[in-house]
Amino acid sequence: MPVTDAELLGAKSLSGEFDKMMDADTNDNQPGTNPDPENIEELRAEDASTEIDFDKAFETDAQGQTGEASGQQSEDISAEDAFAAEASAQEELQRQVSELKAQLEDRTGQFTRLTADFDNFRKRTAKEREELEVKVKCNTISAMLEVVDNFERARSQIKPQTEGEMAIHKSYQGVYKQLVDAFKKLGVSPMRSEGQEFDPNLHEAVMREPTDQHPEGTVIDEFVRGYVLGERVLRHAMVKVATPLDPSAEPSDPSS
Questions:
Q1: Tell me: the pLDDT tens digits for 207-250?
Q2: Do the strands 232-235 and 227-229 form a parallel or antiparallel pair, or are they unpaired?
Q3: Beta-sheet strand order (sheet of 227-229)
Q4: 45 to 18, 39, 42, 159: CA distances (angstroms)
Q5: Pairing of strands 203-210, 237-243
């Protein structure tokens, strides 16, 4: 049966005790000393009566070694547990940081999208409001254009003869001038169609006249004046357009 380290340590301990006892006996037997015989006999009797339990000594040393090993092992286990706990805490912190980063990116994306949507909504609303204002303005001004037409017809047809008639003429012409000035402030301007080339975007041809006095497609007369608001046409001008002469319609020579 092999001898364990604990048994070797116990044997060494017992050997040390025997060496001490032998040294004590040697010192007692040196010359110049007078030991008391009774004390020597008592010591020897006591030593003789002393029983040495080798199994108990080995068992005690083994328990001491086992305790030291257990303490070392517990210290190793405690260090491993601490390292594992620290690593777990770091992983948990990293997980929390990753979650916070993801939440931050998500909130940032939501904020960016909301900002873009709000900006688009603001631009769209402003454009719709502007278009609505222009539409309402156009409808209102278009309804007032007939009043302007009546003032212009009256000015061209009525010829005042007396001072009373002249006073009436000046009074309604003053109203007409105020109305025209109000239109100018709103950005309304009349078209000047006579002598211009016919443009279907601006003109409405209500009559055509064959003639060699004007190039083909030229506006030679304006029946109803057209108006524009900025670049928007409020009313197309009603005009007469020149067309080329028909050769078959020329009068024949009487001498033939």
A1: 888 888 888 888 988 888 899 988 889 999 999 998 888 766 55
A2: antiparallel
A3: 188-190, 227-229, 232-235
A4: 16, 10, 5, 172
A5: parallel
CB-based contact 248:215 (threshold 8 Å): no
What is the Cα–Cα distance from 106 to 177, expressed in whole angstroms?
Answer: 64
Nearest partner of 21 among 51, 1, 47, judged by Cα: 47
pTM of structure = 0.50
Instruction: Evaluate whether 236 touches 198 at the Cβ level (below 8 Å).
Output: no
Report pLDDT digits (tens) over 175-211: 888 988 998 988 898 988 888 889 889 999 998 888 8
- Per-domain residue ranges of the chain: 187-245
CB 194 within 8 A of CB 219: yes
Alpha-carbon distances of 101 from 26, 93, 114, rounded to whole Å:
84, 12, 20
Look up the CATH superfamily of 187-245.
Head domain of nucleotide exchange factor GrpE (2.30.22.10)
- What residues contact residue 14 under an 8 Å CB cut-off, 6+ apart? 52, 54, 57
Asked if residue 220 lies in contact with residue 214, where contact means CB atoms within 8 angstroms, the answer is yes
